[in-house]
Amino acid sequence: MAKITNLNQFRKAKARVEDRARADENAVKFGRTKAQKAVEEAARTRARRILDAHERSQEKDAERDSEL
Question: In the chain, what are the domain boundaries?
Answer without folding.
Answer: 33-68
